[in-house]
Amino acid sequence: MQISNVQLINLPKVFDERGNLSFLEANKHIPFEIKRSYWIYDVPGGEQRGGHAYITTEEFIVALSGSFDVLIDDGRNKQRISLNRSYYGLYIPKGIWRSMENFSTNSLAFIVASTVYSEHDYQRDYSQFLMLNNASQES
């Protein structure tokens, strides 16, 4: 998988004087069925989350509150994407290394995933990730 497959996706916005509303729907706004959702919060200053790739899982990450950066890496190219609005999110396909950092105070990261949790789906060794991705990109 290449970094060019990562997408920033705008979500619908319903404006209302009482407060705005945004939402997402599987296979409509994001390109997969949602099997799991989770959120990351109360991240201490200077800490990083993620630091892995998935073998089969696709994810969509939204900053519901505050801001943070998502660093993506396909083994050849790297990119930093700042998330700071609740009406767009970052689609990350399988096979892309990701980490999250620079969390603002009271930030809330909401993530939906295409698979149920499985420790076996994680690729946590960066040097192994580089070997596998560079070999598959050369094929």
From TrEMBL:
The UniProt record lists the keyword Kinase: no
UniProt cross-references to InterPro entries, sorted A to Z: QdtA_cupin_dom, RmlC-like_jellyroll, RmlC_Cupin_sf
Residue intervals of the Sugar 3,4-ketoisomerase QdtA cupin domain: 5-132
Keywords in alphabetical order: Isomerase
Top-rank taxon, per record: Bacteria
Classification via Pfam families: FdtA
SUPFAM superfamilies assigned: RmlC-like cupins
GO molecular function terms noted in the UniProt entry: isomerase activity
Record Gene3D superfamilies: Jelly Rolls (2.60.120.10)
Protein name in the entry: Mannose-6-phosphate isomerase-like protein (Cupin superfamily)
